[in-house]
Amino acid sequence: MIKMEVSPLAARRLRDNLGNQPGVIKLYYDTEGCGCDGVNTLLIQSQKGQFDLPIDAGDLSFVVDQQHQIFYEDTLWLDAEENYPTFKLSGKSSTYSTNVQLRDMRQASAI
User: Which residue windows are coiled coil (predicted)?
Assistant: First the structure.
């Protein structure tokens, strides 16, 4: 199981985006249109998908697709900067991205 440590600022931003609606945050490795490299993204979904596995992230509900978990280390850190709208995702041996976008997919799935 992946363990993710979320900084207080990143946690506050995620909670603000979740609002009062139920949701789960998915760590997603988007390879569509990216050639051989993928783009790390955070998706807010209404619920966990059939092939999603839990990520231990404290009181935040995180998941990762079982096929995407191989792209990540066992321990991850998610951080944010005060004046920048995206997140930084890193592990012990690498920085995955300093520009991780957060997309709320709850409205898209309701249509």
Answer: none
